[in-house]
Amino acid sequence: MRMAGWKARLTFDFDFAQFMNNSAFANRSVRANAEVGVWHEPVLLNEAVAFLQPAPGRVFLDGTLGGGGHSEALLMAGARVVALDRDGDAIAHARERLGKFGDAFLAVQADFSNADSLSEVRSLAPYDGALLDLGVSSHQLDTASRGFSFRHDGPLDMRMNPEMGEPASAIVNTADESELTEIFRTFGEEPQARRVARAIVSERTRTPFSRTCQLAALIEKILGRRGRIHPATRVFQALRIAVNDELGALRRGLEIMPGLLRSGARFAVITFHSLEDRMVKAFFRLGSERWLDRPEWPSPRPNDAWKFRDLTRRPVGPSAGEIARNPRARTARLRVVEMLMSQQREVAV
Questions:
Q1: 81 CB-contact burial (10 Å; exposed 0-12 / middle 13-18 / buried 19+)
Q2: pLDDT tens digits for 14-33?
Q3: What's the predicted TM-score (pTM) here?
């Protein structure tokens, strides 16, 4: 990863209008009784399963396997599941946990943004539904050696796949002040981004950053601590997003997923912060509009990107009970669209 590429990536990921213009994409209640393990508690589980409507004979693509909770719920309803995850630990855990489902479950270590290039995925396409749960797993957060959290001291890593790319420490120790400021401001929405960046650049001349608590302590010293949320939270989010190119992966994933789904299939995405949610909302909204209109146009024009029916004009959030049981679910938002039948589009046009 070279720092010179960060400015282009930041600009591209957040120019939503350009993204939409240039993109290739141009209730029934179900109770899921999946067993919840200590690895990770899936968020919005019942809600996601209710929208996806799994049943025997249906095949689903879980682009973010994690602890396997969502996949297990789909499998328990009789569906087949192909699941992807960048994290080899997650793949190994899920294969052990879900091995009882035999050939109905296939786990592949891969990034969902490359799903359309995987033979394991293409062989079962088109799918009856797809799910992306964009959160970090509890296992990743709670395992100190992964370096995602400052609650436990560990190496400043944050890679979803520890065997690929460079760790967060590489950015912290080599990016200049302006680049760090842009990362913290854009990916973390940190109002004190420049102040934090300046302190990091100054401190690393004496001692390079290598540990999570080392960085968190500096940020707390600079910003002080007010309220329940640790002042390093936004910076750690920004570094994680940058290290793993999370928004770039999401952009590519949104573009390719519709091409893997059949007519009538449902595409569900669970987000955890406003950057992700804005991107998903904009993409789904564009794909759900039959007509486009601009002030300079004499009349509305057909939308070539129209192929969705939006099932969640307002995102679905966790219940009070789920938040009480799993506080990490409090910011989760679920958005779902349904692929239009080709006949529907032809008649409408």
A1: buried
A2: 343 443 344 332 333 333 33
A3: 0.86
